[in-house]
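Fig. S4 source data, part A: sequence.
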Amino acid sequence: MQPLGRWVTGILALVAGMAFGQLPDFKETKAQAEKGDAEAQYNLAVMYDMGIGAPKNYMESGRWYAKAGAQGVAEAQFQLAVRYYEHGKQAKENYTSAFSWFYKAALQGMAEAQYNVALMYQLGRGVPTNRVEAYKWYIISAAQGYAKSLAARENLAGDLSTSLRAEGERRATTFEPKRTYRPQASVAADGETPKASGTGFFVTEDGYLITNFHVVNGASTCSVKTRRGKFPARVVKVDEKNDLALLKAIGSFSALPVGNSKEAKLGDPVFTIGFPNTDVQGVEPKLTRGDINSLAGIKDDPRHFQISVPVQPGNSGGPLVDSAGNVVGVVTMRLGDWRTLQLTGALPQNVNYAVKSAHVRELVDAVPEAAKKVKASGGPRKFEDIVKQVEDSVGIVFSY
């Protein structure tokens, strides 16, 4: 059995991004990397691997992965682990190093790394065999909807006694991911001012995300900034009629399940987390709560919900999330104060709209590679757990 490597996924994403001019400049990236910027160090490593801006150089890419990994960039830690694992047959200590790097990334919440930690515990590669720990890590990874871990968890469960399964489950419940890399916040690309920005949210763990079409309309390049840093992104498909866009970023991310908007009811509580008015309010994510006020939008438009969730410029593209943690809509617009005053003689009182998630599914389903990776809807959970997941799954989308 071989570990599941994000290596191939990441390389394919980079190749696709090249056609859209999404990748950072090599010289600028190297300069930033040499100054100690962890995100630049990771990008430089990938560029050496791909031969982007410089000849391919396996040694240099490994050196920069190591620097970024030492600063806590989970994706770099994962890439190092895959490299060591590939050379495991040459020396036993390579498996040990692979496990160490997978484990670092797993502690930060990366589902694929957690799967590989579990696999190595189960096989006894790089670490003594420990089926209870393997079961624990399969549970943690599967809880994020990771398909391979779901299957492996069930297979291993059949070989464990009731007491051992209970112990693995107990250990899994105590796990909390801890990010070790926190980049400095920034709302603009280095040396470049974005034409527009809004909120986006990931619907797959390998980087497919949703935002509003008007956020990326006319953009030549895009990026998305999360708590882990800023990542190149490309527009994959748009639905201009419903003001939606599907983007693809490079990296590994937390993702939100897309729910069924047809099941939403009048009065249901909903909330969003986004990045309104970043120039004034800053780049920390902001949460606002409200209800579904109507199952239709302006002039009874069936594509939208009317919501009482307070939103501002910059919330566009943010997820509208129900009490179970499922995305039931995408924040898209608010009733304009001036126009409403002209028409009615009164200012609107917190009248906002979200396009229903049914149209998100239509857009994503049109891209099979994304559709097959979308997380299934979840059941009721604690509100604070849902908020944490949403916070980890949203980012600022910039268009240039």
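Fig. S4 source data, part B ends here. Confidence is low (pLDDT under 50) at residues 1-22, 183-191, 335-349.
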